[in-house]
Amino acid sequence: MEKAGPDRPDGYSVSLLCRALKISRSGYYAYLAARPAAAATAREEDELVAEIRQIHEESRRAYGSPRITAALRRRGRRINRKRVERLMREHDIRGITRRKRRSLTKADRKAAPSPDLVGRDFTAVEPGTKLVSDITYLPTLAGWWYLATVIDLATREVVGYAMADHHRAELVVDALKMAAGRGALKPGCIAHSDRGSEYTSREYRMLIRELNLRQSMGRTGSCYDNAAAESFFGLLKAEIGTTVWESHEAARADVFRFIEVEYNRTRLRKHPVYGYVTPLETRTLTAHDLTPAA
């Protein structure tokens, strides 16, 4: 028997094998010619899947195909979303589905609510003109840990936040003070929240007046009237992934990292003008666009 090779696989002639398999000789040679390219394509796809997995892990397994596609493009890859969707489906790479949360809102029936100045329009053109605020709870082995946030609707940046083992008025006051210090709030900026007693408290309303803001409130029991703030908490709990923290300190560290390192600086969100950008990038781009030409 002659030595095996491209013309004599396993020592048999190509003509004999092609007749036995009922394929053409030209088809066989075309297959051989395509093998290097197919191997190169397979290697490229393996590298792409590894990069998709890396981005997915860095996002705490939260990103779906749209944001992973955007992240790949930011890295210089020219790729379409359908290909990313296919690879994620084939390799069982999935974004996180958010779970519902229990509301903390307890209205003070003696306090008069402020009017709703937002009307479920959670958009703003200029930073520092419209804020949304809310409180959530985080379960720890040491007891509940509470987080109050203030989000700028123009950028979706968390400009203020505070954490404590209570949710008294001082918690939301501290969060708004941080927002005032770093958010470049404009006079008359709308500060929207639910009708929780923390937001109708004397301390909070005094700060609203001192900062020359306009207070706004949604209806009691309607999560849609403060949907942007609710959405952020759903995102935070889904992407952090922790069910119960070991301590208040562990919860504080995780929340700080999520807000300051991951959400504000690296998490991509689709902006109607700028495409997929982070909250801080949105602030920079908006500031540039709103700066009058010299």
Task: Please tag this protein with its features.
single chain, 294 residues, alpha/beta, 5-stranded mixed β-sheet, two-stranded antiparallel ribbon, 7 strands, elongated
How do the helices and strands line up, and which of them pair or pack?
Layout: H1 14-21, H2 25-58, H3 65-74, H4 81-90, E1 130-140, E2 143-152, E3 157-164, H5 169-182, E4 190-193, H6 202-210, E5 214-217, H7 227-240, H8 248-266, E6 269-271, E7 275-277, H9 279-290
Parallel strand pairs: 1-4, 4-5
Antiparallel strand pairs: 1-2, 2-3, 6-7
Helix pairs in contact: 3-4, 5-6
Number of helices: 9
How many DSSP-defined strands? 7
Average pLDDT, rounded to a whole number, is 84
CA gyration radius, whole angstroms:
28 Å
Report strand order across the widest sheet: 3-2-1-4-5
Give unreliable regions as ranges: none
Into which percentage range does the β-strand content fall? 5-15%
Oligomeric nature of the chains = single chain
Overall, the morphology is elongated
N-to-C series of helices and strands: HHHHEEEHEHEHHEEH
Helical fraction equals 40-55%
End-to-end Cα distance, whole Å, is 86 Å
Specify the structural class: alpha/beta
Largest sheet data: 5 strands, mixed
Descriptive account of the structure:
Helices cover about 45% and strands about 15% of the residues. With about 290 residues, the chain is an alpha/beta fold. The strands form two sheets. The chain has a five-stranded mixed β-sheet, with helices on both faces. The longest helix is centred in the N-terminal third of the chain and has 34 residues, at about 25-60. It is elongated, with a radius of gyration of 28 Å. The protein starts with 13 loop residues before the first helix and ends with a helix.
